[in-house]
Every structure is written in structure tokens, then in C-alpha cells.
Amino acid sequence: MPELPEVEVSRLGISPHMIGHTISQIIVRQPTLRWPVPQEIQQACGLTINTIRRRAKYLLIDTRAGSIILHLGMSGKLRVIDATTPLQKHDHIDIVLDTGVCLRFNDPRRFGACLWQPADQPQNTLLSHLGPEPLSEDFDQQRLFELSRGKSVAVKNFIMDNKVVVGVGNIYANEALFFTGIDPRKAAGKVSKKKYHQLTEQIKIVLAKAIQQGGTTLKDFAQADGKPGYFAQQLQVYGRKGEQCHQCDSLIESITIGQRNSFYCPNCQR
Ligand code: ZN
């Protein structure tokens, strides 16, 4: 599943080809994605793309009349290609530009989304209910500590809650908790202020590093230029069950927390 770093890398990859250009046509071949693709999306035709933003794992392609909201879901891929490129299976949407290139959205599992946010209407509730961006100053050292008091939910689930902070996916939650020495099962309300300060820093570091390295990938992500992504980051615990901890030689263990595979070092994380 594309995580925040992959979405950010997609944004960086597609932006230079799209910003400042006019949308000449939007072709929707398959309108049944996670939600139906609204007809209103055609309002973007004839308009210039001003910016492309990211909010959590949503991409927002901004025009004067409003924004096209894209979400890659479980298996979505974006490519910037010549609009005449032959179609592949699951190529659901083309956003064609006056330059003859198009942004092509491919999504075999169709959990992705393509929606329309009119410029003059309140923000879509998908976006308005989100917590702060992890790499922004709004995600400061106090936030995790203050929001966690009295909470018995596992700290790993707590930091993966989009209302607490967006975009901390399973891989990055596991890794940040390892670097901070926190057992992922620990009750969120029992983690100290000092540990939360460190955890906040580590979340920022692991995400920034992944973006820098071009986004990590598991299997379904292709980078904006169509080349498959690669798992560049050296992971400390994620996916390493039964292997030796890089810090202490203990064997990495795996458990399920909140239905997600969780990995930790029983010696380094308490
Ligand atoms: Zn260890």
C-alpha cells in the first residue's frame, strides 16, 4: 500500500510535468472506484493547474474552480505519459494536458479515489477531520504526550490514528518505535513525556528519510516515471521476524496489534 512517502514522491514526480499547464480533457473509463468519480470533475477542463499539494495521503491538483482529489488506495499508481500511450488493464482515468501528456491513474483493486473539491465550498470531510502533517511544525513535541494522557490504546495504534497525526503507516510506526525503544504494545497513556519527545523526532526522521530515498515500497507502487519503486531504506525491525536486532543481537519478534503486523526487539523496546 502506498504510504505517505510514496505519495509525496509521486507529488514531486508529477508536479514538474503538470503545474502551469492546462487540462484539456479528463477521461474516466471506470467511474466506480472507492467512491463514484463525480461528473463535476469535468469542471477542471480548460483550467490551468496552479499547484499540486499533498494532505496526508491525498493529492490535490488545484485549479481556479477547485481541486481534483486523488487517493491511491491499496494499489493505485500514477504515471505521467504521452496521452497516446496504449492502455493497460486497470487504467481508469486520464487527466490530459495541453502539452499532449497525461496523468494516468491505474488501480487494479479500485480502493483509490478521484473526487472533486469545489473552490467555493467547505473542505471535504475526508480532509477536514485529519490531524496535522507529521513533517509540519503543527506536529510538535507536546502533541503526542498531551493527547495520550489517560489512553489505554497501544502506543502503536495511537500514533497510527489519523486524528493524532496523519501518514504514520505501519512500516514507519514500527521503525519509529524501535528507534525510541518503546514497546509497541505499551498503553499510550503510560509512555513518558521524554519518550514522546523522542518519538516525535523519530517519526519525522523516518518519514523524511523515506521521502529522500524515493519512497519505500512493498509491491504495488510504481514511481511517477513508471519505474518500479524500490525498498531503499534499511529497515531495523519491519519484516525482520526471527532475524537479529542490529543493536543487540536479540531476535526480532512479531505480533498483531490492531490487526496490523507489528515487529519489535524484546530487548531494546520496553
Ligand atoms: Zn535489540
Provide structural commentary:
- With 270 residues, the protein is an alpha+beta fold.
- The chain has two domains: 4-127, N-terminal domain of MutM-like DNA repair proteins; 143-264, Orthogonal Bundle (Helicase, Ruva Protein, domain 3), CATH 1.10.8.
- The chain has helices at residues 4-18, 125-128, 143-148, 155-159, 170-180, 193-212, and strands spanning 23-28, 51-55, 58-62, 66-71, 77-82, 91-97, 101-106, 113-118, 253-257, 260-264.
- The strands form three sheets. A four-stranded antiparallel beta sheet has the order 1-6-7-5, covered by helices on one side. The chain has a four-stranded antiparallel beta sheet with strand order 2-3-4-8, with helices on one face. A two-stranded antiparallel ribbon has the order 9-10.
- A hairpin with a 2-residue loop joins strand 2 (51-55) and strand 3 (58-62).
- The chain is elongated, with a radius of gyration of 20 Å.
- Residues 216-223 and 226-232 have low confidence and may be disordered.
- The structure holds zinc ion.
- Residues 245, 247-248, 250, 265, 267-268 line the site of zinc ion (ZN).
